[in-house]
Structure formats: structure tokens, C-alpha cells
Amino acid sequence: MTVGILVSVILGALFGHFLMPEAFYMISGDLLIPGLCVLLFFVGIDLGRDGTVVASFKKMGARILIFPFAIIIGTLLFAFLISFVLPVTARESMAVSAGLGWYTLAPIILSEYSAEISALSFMYNVMRELLGIVLIPFVAKYIGFIECVGLPGSASMDVCLPIVERATSPNITIYSFVSGLVMSISVPILVPLIIGL
Asked: Roughly how many angstroms between the first and final C-alpha of the chain, as a whole number?
């Protein structure tokens, strides 16, 4: 599965760079949303067929919220530590990482602060999602199911949800969706709060 995902991303990048007609770029964004909805629809069907999703969610209760908050705290803590070896301040590093993989929102918020930090945020958050797409099957197989949920950040509830569902189990899919939801809600709060906008 990892190889298939990696080959798909590379082929897509090559096709987009060398072969894609310019006119397609005008409609590609509009095609992504329906495509993603179809993927999520089939994930929902799989979850419904399993029959244990509602029971599992009730069993986990509020404890399921511990995991996304642990991901957020871990992300911000690492960003603070890595700022000592990067040419950015701790506040800037933490604000960039507070995008939690949401590469379309965090850079826009940070553009009011600095174009350079906004560009850094875009690159960081795109890379987080792409590495999540590539590494989820590997981490699920060799490290653990629950650990792979934190990789893509907020994308764990949409783009990466089908990959998590395929690589893990229905119980972990619930963690993935809730984690992505909590992180998505956190981004518009944390980024401006940390950067001081």
C-alpha cells in the first residue's frame, strides 16, 4: 500500500508538472472536493458495515479527546525545541507548527505577520500531509495503529482518513476522524494566539 501511494503521488506530481493542460488547473480544485467526498463516503460504508463503530465510540467516551490534545502539545513542544537550531524565533516556529497540517488556512493567517513565515508555514503543512500519506501504512505496520493517526495532523479526518482506515482498523478510524476534527478546530485559534495577531 505504501508503494502504491508513493507511486501515485510521484506520478501525479510528474503529470501535473509536464503533461497537465493549463485549462485543467482552473477546474482541478473543484474536482478535488467531490473526489474526497466519494472517498469518505466509502470509508463511511466500511465503518457502517463493521457494526461496532457506535459501540466503540460510546466505550471510548471523552477519553478519545486526550489523543488529539497530546498530538497538539507534542507538535508545539517539538517546534519550541527545534527553534533553537532554526533561523526563526520560538514563537514563529510554534505558530508555523500550529497549522497542524492545514496548509490552506495557516499560511493565510500568518501572511498578516510575515510573508516569509507564511511561506514556511505552507511548506511545513504541505510536507506534514504528504509525509502522512506516504508513512501511515509503514507506521501502522511496523510501529502501531494509533501512532499513525498523528502524522498528517488535521488531514487525518479527510484526505488521510481512507488511508488510515485501510492500514488500521475501524476503531482507529474513529480516533483519526476525531483527532482531525479537534486539530482543525484548533488551528484558527492557536495560530493567531501564538503569533500574537
From this structure: 42
